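We now fix the convention by which a protein and its fold are recorded. Here is one such record, which you should read through line by line:

>
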Amino acid sequence: MSGASATDTAPAPTPVPASSVPVTPAMPPAGLRATARIHAVADGRGGTALPLLAGEGPLALRRTRSASGADAGVMLVGAMSAPLGGDHLTVEATAGPGARLTLASAAATLALPGRTGEPARYDVHLVLEDGASVRWLPEPLVSVRGSDLRVRTRVRLAPTARLVLREEQVLGRTGEVPGLLRSRLTVDRGGRPLLDQELACGPGAPGGWDGPAGLAGHRALGQLLVVDPAFAEDPPAAAVLGEFAAVTPLAGPAVLVTVLAADALLVRELLDEACHSYGW
């Protein structure tokens, strides 16, 4: 009689239910994700309503009163420290036909280093429909030592819309070297490009950013962009506001004010002077 083989005597393997197989969970993205959403509409009585006002995480939103009563005011209040390295914050605001919206922030935004070494992102998307008016007036952004922040601001305007947009950056706190800051602003009007500019400064930025052709040793900078259909008939003239401040008409119904200064206070003073002088 022949001997039995191993395959004849070994028991069949017991199938393992799929539900009992351990699954390695996907790693969540590093950093915080938060979005603030704002929608303004004309209320039919000469004012502006806010049917959508929703914030997440550090992006808390508060209604504010406007001096004229026609504008809807929204204050962006930081509910926690952000953005840190790896965070991605987004502000989305839409102004419907004829709506008037003023957006501001309660305090300066500090770009802080994170634990992973990844860059942080801060995106702003503004949409202005026919006859809408938006004023985006945040407090300065401070690039803290060791931070890496990428800011992207995108604006889409109807040809009849009006925009006042202010940006201010401070490179480092007092006596501190800055982090790496990369900022881009793109504005489309009526489906056509109006402005597309990019700024990079701090350790790791392209060479020359702090030289005579760049910031020339200054640690605070700002700009004010005004887009107004009225400029098509009566454009502001180019002007010099100071040694490192200028008013530049753009190829379109818009004007750009740029300022370099030793500190944020002087930047704000020069931008405010431009606003008051031209009635913006």
